[in-house]
Specification:
The complex is a heterodimer of chains A (113) and B (115). Chain A is 0% helix and 52% strand. With 113 residues, chain A is mainly β. In chain A, the strands form two sheets. In chain A, strands 2, 4, 5, 9, 10 and 11 form a six-stranded mixed sheet that branches. In chain A, strands 1-3-8-7-6 form a five-stranded antiparallel sheet, with no helix packed on it. In chain A, a hairpin with a 6-residue loop joins strand 4 and strand 5. Chain B is built from no helices and eleven strands. In chain B, a hairpin with a 6-residue loop joins strand 4 and strand 5. The N and C termini of chain B lie far apart (36 Å). In chain B, 0% of the residues lie in helices and 49% in strands. Classes of the chains: A mainly beta (113), B mainly beta (115). Chains A and B meet through strand 5 and strand 10 of A and strand 4, strand 5, strand 9 and strand 10 of B.
Chain lengths: 113, 115
């Protein structure tokens, strides 16, 4: 019940295209869903996050779509750029004592010029 | 403020040796987390501090692992009698809040290689 399942494992997109990464969760107590971006040799950096009271959140080229009934959420990267090439992790946590993050297994995105 | 700082960035050690990592969180962040990340996987939670109190430890944290956060500032993670399976990236993260705000900022990690 603590798992967050992420797909695909890897993704190749042409410059200017749309990158879509999907995640699913089981624990309905999760109430915070962030996406992290990680470059090689670096720690994860928060990209965008959503709470289940909204179905969509957009920040620049990045959009999270959230489907509470299906227990799924996805990251859309519009107009993908070579600089977006990185590993993306979805995560989930529940408000409470620790707010620890449960991460998906990651998606390696390569944006070809 | 330069963000979450971890030291060292890389550590190579022989099996059976003890190692200690340090994490300096963002100033005034009361929450501090340690995660472990192996190749091709997402970070896995190890332990959590609220100020100086260690409030949660994962089952992943065997008795060879110990973490401290004296005075609620920097934190150390020690691994005793290292094993090859301990080879991983150890990430520290910090955040500020009383329960709902969970935006966590990660350091660049310490990559441990046990040979």
């Amino acid at each position: 019940q603590q798992q967050v399942k992420q797909s695909p494992q890897s993704l190749i997109v042409q410059k200017g295209g749309i990158s879509i990464i999907n995640c699913a969760y089981e624990n309905t107590a999760f109430d915070y869903f962030p996406w992290y971006q990680q470059f090689p040799g670096k720690g994860p950096a928060l990209l965008i996050a959503i709470r289940p009271d909204v179905s969509e959140k957009k920040e620049g080229r990045f959009t999270i779509s959230f489907n509470k009934s299906a227990k799924q959420f996805s990251l859309h990267i519009m107009d993908s750029q070579p600089g977006d090439s990185a590993t993306y992790f979805c995560a989930a946590s529940m408000s409470g004592a620790t707010n620890k993050l449960i991460f998906g297994t990651g998606t390696l995105l390569a944006v070809q010029p | 403020d330069t963000g979450v700082s971890q030291d060292p960035r890389h550590k190579i050690t022989k099996r059976g040796q003890n190692v200690t990592f340090r994490c300096d969180p963002i100033s005034e962040h009361n929450r501090l987390y340690w995660y472990r990340q192996t190749l091709g996987q997402g970070p896995e939670f190890l332990t959590y501090f609220q100020n100086e109190a260690q409030l949660e430890k994962s089952r992943l944290l065997s008795d060879r692992f110990s973490a401290e956060r004296p005075k609620g500032s920097f934190s150390t993670l020690e691994i005793q009698r290292t094993e090859q399976g301990d080879s991983a990236m150890y990430l520290c993260a910090s955040s500020f809040g009383d329960g709902r705000d969970t935006e966590a900022f990660f350091g660049q990690g310490t990559r441990l290689t046990v040979v």
